[in-house]
Amino acid sequence: MYRFLLTPRWLLLHVAAVAAVAGCLLLGWWQADVYQDSSGRHELRDREPVAVAELAAPGAELGDSADRQAVATGTYVAAQQQLVPGRVHDGTLGSFVVTPLQTDDGMVVPVLRGWVDDPDDAGTAVPSGEVTVTGYLLPPETPDHATVRTGQQVDEGRVAYIAPDQLAQRAGVSEATALHGYLLLREESPELAAAPVTLDVDAVAPIRDVSPWQNLSYWAQWWVFALAAVVFWVSIVRNGVRTRRKAETAAAEQSGDDDVSAPAPSHAPS
């Protein structure tokens, strides 16, 4: 009765059903993981700031320290300041201002101090003396963040994106002694009369923000699709079995009718 389920056509249907169920389950888990990751990053950003040296080491990946608030005290290195051109703030094209901070323990922390619309803005002036900077630790940018064309040379005092290799090449910042990432300034002490526009962390490094109910609906939606695929497969199999039973019953009845209607054999008299 059920041997037809092992024919090539039906085996292909079984494989397609399994693939559909597995795909829907994976997409559902993916939606759940995206939300958990987003929630975790928000929680990290809400933690109290701690010393940058407690969270990161020179040249090492930030790892779980990314998105944490950190405090660094030191002196800006004016000669190594760089502008990152082609960055938009509130619909206006301008530049990020990145200034390396030499900390008391010898680490060099690239600080994204903010945004200016004019490279000659007074806010680009580098403050002298010791400063304390509080901000968010963020991983290095990638070439995808660059607004310049591939292969295009940027002017002196500018980098295409914020990364150790760019700062090492353009500003002479040693990757071995520098933070592998940058600190997005939130507060600075002492405050300056003229400073770049402070940037919001959610604008610089946005987190995919999904509400719990929206994420729950996405997760449930893919699992409902998985259940629907199972129901569809069961329905197809049951329909196939039902069709073959009807065919076998009809064939048996037809065989019985043929036996009844057949004439009895005649016997010659002895």
Describe this structure in words.
- This protein is of the alpha+beta class and 270 residues long.
- It has two domains: 10-44 and 209-239; 47-204, no CATH class.
- The longest helix has 50 residues, at 212-261.
- The mean pLDDT is 83.
- The protein is built from five helices and seven strands, in the order αβαβββββαβαα.
- It is elongated and about 120 Å long.
- β3 and β4 form a beta hairpin.
- This is SURF1-like protein.
- InterPro entries: Surf1/Shy1 (IPR002994), Surf1/Surf4 (IPR045214).
Give the SSE map.
Blueprint: H1 8-45, E1 50-51, H2 52-55, E2 69-76, E3 82-89, E4 92-103, E5 108-116, E6 130-138, H3 164-171, E7 182-189, H4 201-204, H5 212-261
Parallel strand pairs: 1-2, 5-7
Antiparallel strand pairs: 2-4, 2-6, 3-4, 4-5, 6-7
Helix pairs in contact: 1-5
Concise account of the structure shown:
The protein is of the alpha+beta class and 270 residues long. 39% of the residues lie in helices and 21% in strands.
Structural class: alpha+beta
Report on the biggest sheet.
5 strands, mixed, barrel
Q: What pattern of helices and strands is seen along the backbone?
A: HEHEEEEEHEHH
Strands ordered across the widest β-sheet = 2-4-5-7-6
How many strands in all?
7
| Overall domain count | 2
Q: Report the principal-axis shape.
A: elongated
Mean pLDDT: 83
Low confidence ranges: none
Radius of gyration: 34 Å
Tell me the number of helical segments per DSSP (H or I, 4 or more residues long): 5
Distance between the termini: 49 Å
Give the amount of beta strand, in percent: 15-25%
Task: Work out the helicity level.
Answer: 25-40%
